[in-house]
């Protein structure tokens, strides 16, 4: 099968609203992505199903890595999935359905997502901000690229802003999960930033890092995330209004995690931040109000500096 020949209009093909595959995908979304579930209710029904399918594919990629017996087995499973995506072996129904939703750039983004997940196998230590931003691009910015055609986005300028929103969300995710990630042998806080506050990645892995020093790094990264969220907002104009609201809600609900973490001084070692339903409801309201404000805002060209570490990757504005 040639994936490029399998493209069909959104909402058509085997993944109808009544299909077991869609029902299964919706269940996966509701189980594993409660923050995004809030946003999904603002999508038209057919787009909501498409979003669930894409989330299911991204979750499958994560699970193939996390649930494998070892790194060798994980690489084998991910290589097999990549063969399905590129038509080198028969594709499972989920892959076939998602290929129908993705344009060429979206398919390239899936490859980059797999590369990002492969980078999580074994111990992870990121050396600097450039490595951090590249990682965030691969595991989250790519999702923005996948979502663009599903949301009805047609302007090619939208890709850069979609990447930035994904990066902002992933930075939030990393700051929230410092303690949990360290327990898995993963340190996403850049070694250069840790060194500046007198901490080594090894100290964080071994539970010896001072909470105040880690909080200083987390606070700085949350400030960095806001630059990417702001860029994501600049690109909302390219999303049709019916689907734009859902993405704004997702941005605000996820951003609330960072606000809660900042509220306790960036202390990520005190345990995982939980955003209560009342705060999520306020974030939803913020998203709705932002839709009106951003619709009237003047257009701002993309800040290429945000993509300096990403030269050559799909959806990136910075040139070599």
Describe the protein's architecture and organization.
This protein is mainly alpha-helical and 320 residues long. The chain has a domain at 103-310: Orthogonal Bundle (Farnesyl Diphosphate Synthase). It contains 14 helices and two strands, in the order ααααααβαααβααααα. A two-stranded parallel ribbon has the order 1-2. Helix 3 (45-66) runs antiparallel to helix 7, helix 7 (129-150) crosses helix 8 (158-176) and helix 12 runs antiparallel to helix 13.
Annotated CATH topology of the domain at 103-310: Farnesyl Diphosphate Synthase
- Beta-strand content: under 5%
Structural class: mainly alpha
Overall 3D geometry? globular
Topology:
Blueprint: H1 20-32, H2 34-40, H3 45-66, H4 71-85, H5 93-99, H6 104-118, E1 124-125, H7 129-150, H8 158-176, H9 178-183, E2 186-187, H10 191-196, H11 201-205, H12 211-234, H13 241-263, H14 277-296
Helix pairs in contact: 1-3, 2-13, 3-4, 3-5, 3-6, 3-7, 4-6, 6-7, 7-8, 8-12, 8-13, 12-13, 13-14
